[in-house]
Amino acid sequence: MMRGMRRRDRGDGYLGRSARSDGRWRASYVGSDGKRHYLHGSTRAEAKEKLGAALRDKAAGLYVAGPSQTLEAFLADWLRDAAGRLGPRTVERYAGLIRLHVNPTLGAIPLRKLAPQDIVRLYADLRSTLAPASIAQLHAVLHGALNQAVRWHAVARNPVAAVRAPRPVRREMRFLDPGQVRTLLTAAEGQPLGALYVAAVFTGLRLGELLGLRWRDVALDARSLVVRHTLTRVEGEWVLRQPKTAHSARTVRLALRAAEALRAHYIAEAERLLALGHRVGPETLVWSDRWGNPVNPWHVTERELAPLLARAGLPRIRFHDLRHSFASLMLSEGVRVDVVSRMLGHASPAITLSVYAHLMPGDEEAAVERLERRIGGGV
């Protein structure tokens, strides 16, 4: 065959020698976008194999076109579509991961040329600067985005699916024992956020759930509160959002000490806000900063809790570890797992068990002893 001539191969593609001086073979086909596209191979067999793969993808209904859209452009489209299904906070977090860790390295790669090796190299580069849990989250984001690319027929296969997800390192769970809880609450008496710590250790609420409470959500006489919102930051603004799951929206019974602490806090807040020209109403947040605005969670953890723990001689823990302390104390007192699960707002007791099962030692021994007594066995 003379150079530059093409002949029709099987199917609706064309295969022939390239007109270029390198002697490569060139295949062409009409993609599902109606345009002709070209593939090259160093041998006829290689070019034919690429052509066959493209035609099979086209026959399967996959989008077969030129590699024009970059990964960065596709991910921007995907995020815009995901915004209609995901919460603003989640979209903001995904966008940050993509902007900071994907686009600088892989963003310019054409979507259809993205290979598993590109993803592997990305994760390897990020290990020195990013926590394993964050890399695992990034993997989940990319996997979901490229799955959508397959559904949209933008690519034939998901290259992320061929890459093993990095294994996140489980953060050590820390919690306070009963004596340490008493020490903490004693040290917090008279502090602006003292009632917040009381509520945390007696309800197990997350920090965002506590800071999202309004006075209409708290029934002091009935000693209960309702979790309806969580305080979250969206595009630089603090907003109240509905909990992520139906189980997170829940009614929680208040211990007498927690109800009394909240009642005293209400009186103090009413006086403080009145001096600022505000009245406490049903929609007023239970906790607010010195200007009556939502409390920044970072302020709670870094400026309030950390110094308080240090003054009390307690180990430094996260605010979330007060939730762990609540769960561990409830379980150690023999409260049923399903009850603790409902109070924590978990989707099922199985989740509670997966997190806190190791805090219930001796259950097997006690169960065997009860069974033995029931049957009446003995040696």
| Main sheet overview | 4 strands, antiparallel
Q: What is the count of distinct domains?
A: 3
CATH fold naming of the largest domain:
hpI Integrase, Chain A
Secondary-structure element order, N to C:
EEEEHHHHHHHHEEEEEHHHHHH
CATH class of the largest domain: Mainly Alpha
Helix content range: 40-55%
Question: How widely separated are the two ends?
Answer: 95 Å
Overall CATH architecture of the largest domain: Orthogonal Bundle
Radius of gyration (CA) equals 30 Å
Q: What structural category arises from helix and sheet content?
A: alpha+beta
Brief synopsis:
By secondary structure, the protein is of the alpha+beta class. The protein is 48% helix and 10% strand.
Give a written overview of the molecule.
The structure is a single chain. It is elongated, with a radius of gyration of 30 Å. It folds into three domains: 54 residues; 92 residues, Tyrosine recombinase, N-terminal domain (DNA polymerase, domain 1, Orthogonal Bundle), CATH 1.10.150.130; 182 residues, Intergrase catalytic core (hpI Integrase, Chain A), CATH 1.10.443.10. Helix 6 packs across helix 10 and helix 12 packs across helix 13. The N and C termini lie far apart (95 Å). It is α+β, with helices and mostly antiparallel strands and 379 residues long. The N terminus is likely disordered. The strands form three sheets. It has a four-stranded antiparallel β-sheet, covered by helices on one side. A three-stranded antiparallel β-sheet has the order 5-6-9, with no helix packed on it. A hairpin with a 4-residue loop joins strand 5 and strand 6.
